[in-house]
C-alpha cells in the first residue's frame, strides 16, 4: 500500500472516450493463459460449511447499499465513525501518514480506541457487519512509536533464514494485534530487477526461490496455523501477499510503471511467491499499481480472476492499492466498475470513497456490475472477517498494549540486524574492533534513527523519525560505543568527525536518507549522499586513521570512491530500531571475539558502476565475507560510466536553504537574499522584499502526474521575520494561490510549515505533465521571510486549498 497518486485516463488507444461502465479491453499480450501458471489453493481451513451457511443468510438479507459498502475501504483521515451510519463501508485503513485522531505518534491504547470507535459504529449500522481494519506494518508495527522495528525486507533477504522470518512474523502479528488491529498489508513479494526502483528495499531478494520460501514463512508467522472451524487467535492477524503482479519488474524501475515481458518470464520471476502464500493460507492479496504489457493490473481479469482466483485457487479477498482503480483507462477514483468486474473485491478508496460508493451503487442497480460478482466480492470480505474472529458467536478480542515492544521481540530484531549485515571488504582484518581500542563513530548515520529505520517508519517517508520514537531501541553509534567500552576501550560519538583524542579506528556511518515511493526512484545507481561524506572518509584516511565504512541503504549502489577510501566496508541496509545487532558483529568482547560473525550474503548483486540493471556486478548475489575466511580486496572501479549530471528531483527543490541541482533560484530586483540560521548554521535563506516582486525555483520541465492526488502537497518550511501589508502568493507552474492568510497566521520569528495540496494548483490550471517552476513566491509589499525547505510530501489529513488571487 502507498500514499500516492490517483490518475485515471479517459481515452482509449483509438482516441474515443469511454467510461468505467465499458469493459476494459486487455491487449493480447496482456492476456494470461491460466494453464501455464502454477496451481495452488487456499487451505480448506480458510472457511467451513457452517461459516458459508452463515454468510449465505447474511447476504440474503443485506440491502444493495450494504453490499456495496462491503467492497469499499476508506482512510481514517477522510471518514469519521459517524459517517458509517449513512455509508456502511466494509473496511477502514490507516495510511502511511494517518495517525489516530490526527496524531501520528499515538500510543497503542489510542490505536485501540480508534479501531473500537469505527468497529462499534459499523456494528450499529445496516446489517451490523463490523469493519475490517488494515495498516501498513511492513517491517514490524512501523506506524507505532515504541514498537519493534525489524530490518527492511532487503536486509532480511541478506539473512537467508526462513525460520527467522517466521519468528519475525509471529512477533509483528502480536504487536499489531496488541494495538487492536487485525490486518497488515504485508508481506511484499516483489522480486526487484532494477534497483532504480524506489521500493527495492521492500523486496527480499532478486532470487524468486528465496522470495517463495519467505512468502510461506511470513504468512505462517503472521496468521499462525489455520484450523477448521476456528478463527485466528488474539495475537494473529491477516496477511496480505502484495503487489500482484510484477511491481518489481517495471521498465527502468519506474514505480507504478509497465512490466514489458513475456508471460513465461512474468511467471518464472515475479509470480513464485504467490502460490506459496496462498497454499500457506494468506487471507488477502493486494493488486499492484503496475501494468503488464500495457494493461493495468487493477483492471486485468485474466490475472485477477482467471489466474489468481481460479488457477491459484485463492479464496480470500483481493484488495486494491491506494486509489489504484482510478488508473484504469476510462475510470476515475470515484467511478470504476471495470475494476470490480475484473476481480477486485475491496476498493482501497482512502479519500474517494464517498463518490465511489454512489457510482458503484448506480452500476449495480443498472446491471453494469452483475449481482453475482458483487455477492462474490461481499462473500470474500465476510469470509475473511469470520476467519479473523470479527463475526460469529466466538469473537476474538485484540488489544494488549503490553505486547508492543516486548523484550522477546526486541531480541529477535537484534538477531535479525546481526544476520543482515554483509561484509564486503576487511583489509588487514580491521574488523572486529579489538578490545581496548579507541574508537570514533562518525558520519550522518552514526546517531540517526531515521536513516537506520528508513521509510515506512512512523510516517510514510520516514524522514522525521527519531530515537525518541523508540525508547527501547538504540542508534548504531551509541550501541557501538557501549560495546567498545564494555570491552575495555574508549569511544567518541561525533557525527561531524571531530575528535579530541586521535582514535585507533573510525567507523563512518553514512548512506541514503529515508524515502518511500516516488521520492526513492532514481535515474541511475550513483550514491550521491550528503555534502561532506566522501570528504570525511578522505580526511580520516589522510590523518592515518584506519576506517570502517558502514553503509546504510535501501539497495546496493555504486560507491566506488568511498569503497576505496575505507579499509573495511559493510552493507548495513536499513536495520531498524535495534542498533545493538550491528555492535554484536563489529565489536569484539574482552575475549577478542565478537558475539556474532558475519553471516549475511548479498540478496542483490552489488554494482560495479552506476548502470542499471546490473549486468556486470562488482559482487554477485550470494557474496559476503566473514571473519573465518578473510579475503583481500584490491581497488575497485571509481568510474560510474553514466552521465554524472544531477538527477532531476520531482519532490525536493530546496533543502536546508540550498536549491538542489538542476533547479535554479531566481530573484526579482526588489528581493535580496542572505544565509541565516534556523536550526543549524546557515540552514536557511532569508528573502527581503523592498517592494513588489517574486522569487522562483526554475528548471527543466518535469512530469509530476504520478504525485497528483490528495495524498501529496507542496510543503514549505519557513520563518516569517517581518510581515508585509500586501498579498502574498505561492505558485506552482502557472497556477498562483493567495497565501496571505497563511503568512499572517505564521508565528513571527519562529519556524513553521504550510502544506498546499498539489490538486489545488491543478484545479487552477497547472500542467502537471510539465512543471518547470515548482515554486514561486510573490509579495506586493515589503516583507521578510526565511525559507528552509521546499518539497513535495505525502499528507495524511485533508488540507484545504488557499484561495486564488483575484
Note down, in words, how this protein is organized.
- It contains 20 helices and 31 strands.
- With 806 residues, the chain is of the alpha/beta class.
- Strands 20, 21, 23, 24, 26, 29 and 31 form a 7-stranded antiparallel beta sheet that branches. A 6-stranded mixed beta sheet has the order 12-17-16-15-13-14, sandwiched between helices.
- The chain starts with 48 loop residues before the first helix and ends in a 12-residue tail after the last strand.
Helices, strands, pairings?
Elements: H1 49-61, H2 64-70, E1 72-75, E2 91-94, H3 108-124, E3 132-135, H4 153-159, H5 162-178, E4 183-184, H6 208-223, E5 240-244, E6 258-259, H7 263-270, H8 273-279, E7 284-287, E8 291-292, E9 295-296, H9 301-311, E10 317-319, H10 337-342, E11 347-348, H11 353-365, H12 371-387, H13 407-420, E12 422-426, E13 438-442, H14 449-453, H15 476-486, E14 490-493, E15 505-511, H16 533-542, E16 547-552, H17 560-565, E17 568-571, H18 580-586, E18 606-607, E19 617-619, E20 652-655, E21 658-659, E22 664-667, E23 671-676, E24 684-689, E25 693-698, E26 712-722, E27 728-732, E28 735-738, H19 740-745, E29 751-757, H20 758-763, E30 775-779, E31 783-794
Parallel strand pairs: 1-2, 1-11, 2-3, 3-4, 5-7, 6-8, 7-10, 13-14, 13-15, 15-16, 16-17
Antiparallel strand pairs: 8-9, 12-17, 18-19, 20-21, 20-31, 22-25, 23-24, 24-31, 25-30, 26-29, 26-31, 27-28, 27-30
Helix pairs in contact: 1-12, 2-11, 4-13, 5-6, 5-13, 6-8, 13-18, 15-18
Amino acid at each position: 500500500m502507498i500514499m500516492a497518486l490517483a490518475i485515471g485516463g479517459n481515452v482509449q488507444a483509438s482516441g474515443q472516450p469511454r467510461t468505467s461502465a465499458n469493459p476494459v479491453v486487455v491487449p493480447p499480450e496482456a492476456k494470461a493463459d491460466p494453464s501455464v501458471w502454477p496451481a495452488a489453493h487456499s487451505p480448506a481451513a480458510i472457511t467451513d460449511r457452517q461459516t458459508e451457511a452463515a454468510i449465505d443468510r447474511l447476504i440474503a438479507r443485506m440491502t444493495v447499499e450494504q453490499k456495496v459498502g462491503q467492497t469499499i475501504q476508506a482512510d481514517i483521515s477522510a471518514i469519521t465513525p459517524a459517517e458509517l451510519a449513512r455509508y456502511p463501508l466494509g473496511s477502514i485503513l490507516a495510511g502511511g501518514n494517518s495517525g489516530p485522531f490526527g496524531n501520528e505518534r499515538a500510543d497503542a491504547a489510542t490505536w485501540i480506541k480508534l479501531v473500537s470507535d469505527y468497529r462499534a459504529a459499523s456494528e450499529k449500522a445496516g446489517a451490523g457487519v463490523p469493519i475490517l481494519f488494515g495498516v501498513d506494518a511492513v517491517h514490524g508495527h512501523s506506524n507505532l512509536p515504541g514498537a519493534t522495528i525489524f530490518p527492511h525486507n532487503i536486509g532480511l533477504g541478506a539473512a537467508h533464514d526462513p525460520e527467522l522470518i517466521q519468528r519475525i512474523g509471529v512477533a509483528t502479528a502480536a504487536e499489531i494485534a496488541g494495538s487492536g488491529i487485525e490486518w497488515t498489508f504485508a508481506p511484499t513479494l516483489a522480486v526487484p530487477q532494477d534497483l532504480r526502483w524506489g521500493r527495492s528495499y521492500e523486496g527480499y531478494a532478486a532470487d524468486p526461490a528465496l522470495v517463495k520460501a519467505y512468502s510461506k514463512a511470513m504468512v505462517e508467522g503472521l496468521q499462525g496455523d489455520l484450523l477448521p472451524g476456528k478463527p485466528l487467535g488474539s495475537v494473529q492477524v491477516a496477511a496480505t501477499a502484495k503487489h500482484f503482479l510484477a511491481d518489481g519488474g517495471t521498465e527502468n524501475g519506474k514505480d507504478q510503471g509497465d512490466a514489458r515481458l513475456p508471460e513465461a518470464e512474468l511467471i518464472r520471476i515475479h509470480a513464485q511467491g504467490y502460490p506459496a502464500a496462498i497454499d500457506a493460507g494468506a487471507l488477502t492479496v493486494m493488486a499492484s499499481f503496475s501494468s503488464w504489457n500495457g494493461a493495468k493490473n487493477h483492471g486485468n481479469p485474466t490475472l485477477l480472476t482467471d489466474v489468481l482466483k481460479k488457477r491459484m485457487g485463492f479464496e480470500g479477498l483481493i484488495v486494491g492499492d491506494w486509489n489504484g482503480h482510478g488508473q484504469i483507462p476510462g475510470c476515475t477514483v470515484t467511478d470504476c466498475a471495470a475494476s470490480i468486474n475484473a476481480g477486485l473485491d475491496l476498493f482501497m478508496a482512502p479519500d474517494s470513497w464517498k463518490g465511489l460508493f454512489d457510482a458503484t451503487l448506480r452500476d449495480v442497480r443498472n446491471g453494469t456490475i452483475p449481482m453475482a460478482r458483487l455477492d462474490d466480492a461481499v462473500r470474500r470480505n465476510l469470509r475473511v472477517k469470520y476467519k479473523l474472529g470479527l463475526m460469529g458467536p466466538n469473537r476474538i478480542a485484540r488489544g494488549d498494549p503490553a505486547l508492543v515492544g516486548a523484550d522477546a521481540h526486541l531480541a529477535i530484531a537484534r538477531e535479525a540486524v546481526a544476520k543482515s549485515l554483509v561484509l564486503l571488504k576487511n583489509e588487514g582484518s580491521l574488523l572486529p574492533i579489538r578490545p581496548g581500542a579507541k574508537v570514533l563513530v562518525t558520519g550522518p548515520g552514526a546517531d540517526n534513527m531515521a536513516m537506520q529505520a528508513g521509510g515506512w517508519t512512523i510516517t510514510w517517508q520516514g524522514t522525521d523519525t527519531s530515537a525518541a520514537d523508540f525508547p527501547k531501541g538504540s542508534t548504531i553509534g551509541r550501541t557501538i560505543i557501549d560495546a567498545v567500552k564494555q570491552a575495555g576501550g574508549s569511544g567518541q560519538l561525533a557525527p561531524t568527525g571531530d575528535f579530541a583524542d586521535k582514535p585507533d579506528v573510525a567507523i563512518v556511518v553514512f548512506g541514503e536518507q529515508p524515502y518511500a515511493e516516488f521520492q526513492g526512484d532514481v535515474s541511475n545507481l550513483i550514491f550521491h549522499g550528503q555534502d561532506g561524506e566522501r570528504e570525511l572518509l578522505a580526511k580520516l584516511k589522510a590523518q592515518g586513521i584506519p576506517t570502517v565504512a558502514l553503509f546504510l541503504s535501501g539497495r546496493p549502489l555504486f560507491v566506488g570512491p568511498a569503497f576505496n577510501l575505507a579499509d573495511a566496508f559493510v552493507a548495513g541496509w536499513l536495520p531498524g530500531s535495534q542498533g545493538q545487532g550491528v555492535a554484536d558483529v563489529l565489536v569484539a568482547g574482552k575475549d577478542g571475539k565478537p558475539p556474532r560473525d558475519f553471516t549475511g550474503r548479498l540478496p542483490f548483486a552489488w554494482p560495479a558502476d552506476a548502470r542499471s540493471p546490473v549486468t556486470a556486478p562488482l559482487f554477485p548475489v550470494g557474496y559476503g565475507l566473514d571473519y573465518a575466511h578473510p579475503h583481500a580486496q584490491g581497488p575497485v572501479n571509481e568510474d560510474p560510466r553514466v552521465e554524472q549530471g544531477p538527477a532531476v528531483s520531482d519532490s525536493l527543490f530546496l533543502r536546508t536553504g540550498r536549491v538542489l541541482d538542476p533547479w535554479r533560484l531566481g530573484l526579482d530586483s526588489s528581493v535580496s537574499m542572505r544565509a541565516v540560521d534556523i536550526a543549524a548554521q546557515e540552514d536557511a535563506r532569508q528573502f527581503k522584499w523592498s517592494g513588489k516582486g517574486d522569487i522562483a525555483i526554475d528548471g527543466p520541465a518535469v512530469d509530476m502526474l504520478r504525485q497528483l492526488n490528495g495524498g501529496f502537497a507542496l510543503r514549505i518550511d519557513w520563518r516569517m521575520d517581518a510581515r508585509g501589508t500586501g498579498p502574498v502568493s505561492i505558485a506552482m507552474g502557472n497556477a498562483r494561490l493567495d497565501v496571505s492568510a497563511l503568512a499572517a497566521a505564521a508565528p513571527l520569528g519562529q519556524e513553521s510549515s504550510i502544506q498546499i495540496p498539489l490538486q489545488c494548483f491543478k484545479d487552477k490550471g497547472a500542467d502537471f505533465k510539465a512543471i518547470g517552476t515548482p515554486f514561486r513566491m510573490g509579495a506586493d509589499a515589503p516583507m521578510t521571510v526565511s525559507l528552509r525547505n521546499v518539497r513535495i510530501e505525502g499528507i495524511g489529513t485533508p488540507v484545504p486549498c488557499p484561495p486564488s488571487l483575484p
